[in-house]
UniProtKB/TrEMBL annotation, chains A, B:
Presence of keyword Transcription: yes
Upper lineage: Bacteria, Bacillati, Bacillota, Bacilli, Bacillales
Domain of life: Bacteria
Domain HTH tetR-type residues, every copy: 5-65
UniProt DNA-binding region: 28-47
Signal sequence region: none
Designated name of the protein: TetR/AcrR family transcriptional regulator
Amino acid sequence: MVDKKNSRDTLIEAASRLFRLRGYYGVGLNEIIEESGIPKGSLYYYFPKGKEELAIEAINHTKEMVISKIQEVFERIEDPIEAMQALIYQLSEVIGESDHKLGMPIGTIASENYSTSEPIRIACQLAFEDWQSLYKKKLISSGYSEKQSKEVSIIVNALIEGGILLSITSKSGKPLQVIAEQMPLLLIKK
Amino acid sequence: MVDKKNSRDTLIEAASRLFRLRGYYGVGLNEIIEESGIPKGSLYYYFPKGKEELAIEAINHTKEMVISKIQEVFERIEDPIEAMQALIYQLSEVIGESDHKLGMPIGTIASENYSTSEPIRIACQLAFEDWQSLYKKKLISSGYSEKQSKEVSIIVNALIEGGILLSITSKSGKPLQVIAEQMPLLLIKK
DNA sequence: GTCTATAAGACGATAGAC
DNA sequence: GTCTATCGTCTTATAGAC
């Protein structure tokens, strides 16, 4: 098992990477098949409904990548404030690099398609909800109330999405750094 | 002066509206000329460099619309916490409406183009900076320190952008409402 | 399952009449 | 300044050979 991934996964990974960079409409199928090396016929064999179906799989792939990253940091760092700060600092460092290929994980696709493709909108909504569940679980297990945990998880998600947007737009990790530094304020136990 | 706007402004307004809905790559020039009623020849007369040039003008137009809205609320409400809460509540109400045409004001274009068009990226960056300047000015005039005002203005901007994204994706004003409610925590004077 | 060739239409952009 | 017709390219999608 050296380099042998199946065509389906190869396509999903290429699509996930490209959609993060330029969004749904900014990437054509031709670019995805070129990047992945999989011919167009195979794409339509695995994703008969075409681009929209591939995009939904790409969104789910990106969602799982982010879940893994969050879980890894949360298992390593017990304190919820420190853990979330570490997560955001990591993001700021990646974006600080000159030619990162991060983009907003799914924010771009979500904002392009919220009014045009209901299946894509729902896939994005589920991703946001799953991430928020992880934040919430971490907070509850650290003694925060159900209500505050839920609210803070929304705030943290919004701060990360907004922070990534500001950081990629300004080509600087600074906005995310400032956000990480202010995290303790949000997490005052009530 | 009843209904007579010049072709240039009509094009910019139509482009601004459509780009907010589906982003830069999600909207074609054909749709913009159809929506505006201005023929393609005129578009290239006013914007010789084509779509990118029109997009930059549309971004600046959207920027000014947002500036007006912020200034209006800030002049009406003196307390900075209450003012920012009012701003965000207003947003949540608009998005709660079934067929709003809000979208992320410029976040979608920014995230699509941060790696592909430097002129567009810079126009978006300037918009974010201008909005943050208004938040900062409000805070300073209410007695917050220079440092805290600057940092909070970034947080507020990130929260609004992220909150709009979560609200349009979930088709609910709830995320923005939660954000508005938690504003006081961020604005504890240090 | 894999791949090529191509269809049908939308895209951004341009030429040139008026 | 205004408008139409059109160019070449790229788009999503399909047909059909292997």
